[in-house]
Predict the structure.
Amino acid sequence: MNPRFKLALASLLALGLGALGTWLLTGDRGAVEPELRRLDDGPGEGVPFDPLGGGPGAPGAAADGTRPVMEGPEGRPLRPGGGSLVGARAPHGIDLSDPATRAAELARLLGAIEVDWAAVAEILALMPAGERLDAASADALLAGLRSERRNMALLAFARLADGALVPALFDLYGDPTAPPGARAAALRALWEMPGADGAAVVRGLESLLRGRPEEDRELLYAIARRGGAEGARALLEYLGRTPDLTRIPDHVLQQLDLGRSVEAREALKAALAAPQSPQMAEKLLAIVAYQQAQGLTEQVIAFDSDAHPAALRRQALDALRQIGDRAAVEHLLGLARQPGEYGEIALKAVADLRRADAAARQALVKALDEAGLAARPDALRAGLL
């Protein structure tokens, strides 16, 4: 093969590769006419697109001269010759930003023989505060709590911004003839509904308390779940007027979310500073430990003294283990360096820390570096490691 022939062959090969690249990049397929559907065409109906034609009467054009919408992979519109069309797809479907359309779609869903509660919840999540349900939709939601699919209906109440249903929910909770489970569902809706006035709900629940912990547990649970400043106040006042606090399970009180409500945390802080009894202090420390509540470390540390019963001191050290901020960890480290019963308890608490923020971790590393200066260096190193 002579050099001139080799040069010609290489030139032809380069030209062919260039044409192939252009064909792939531009999407120019020559005479191939992809089947394309208009937005208003039914399934399987299509019109061929003519990349060269245009205007009324041209192949692939509508009578008014507009061209069909072409869709490529993932629904992206295409331009003649291939590639993506600049701009978004033409909007389609139901416009749920319109209140009237939203109400009509909600009525349609709630009127079905088998309600799609997940879809109902999605629509209710779009309702702004202050928007009210029509009477028929409200009745359908309440009927859902009385049905066997009440657990699914609760999905809707967890998104509902309309607090006007609160009185009806209280009526359902107080109805002794309601189907089994309906009263519990109404109670849950009361603590979950974002559109309800939380303080008003708590006061309504509080008015139903009988003063007997065994009978009030579900109401106390609901008050704690509703939470906020009113929820914390109601629980603390109930603790203060109950002689035997062992009758109130810790798991009921631990539902009070201190991380979500600054007011609830401040109310608990004040109660910890002056508990009415050791029993009440134990209940409060149980809430702090379970919530791993930040901002209450100083009040918890105050219980680590000879002025308090041994059981309360141990509970306070365990609460510090759960809190895990720098002040809590440094207090445990200081105590862990000392011999004796509480030094051992503190060392175990350090070894079993539930959490430690960045500053607390730095304190742990520093304590490990300085462990040789402690009275029990090997034990302290082991606990820190």
User: Anything to note?
Assistant: Residues 28-74, 76-85 have pLDDT under 50 and may be disordered. Residues 3-26 form the longest helix (24 residues).
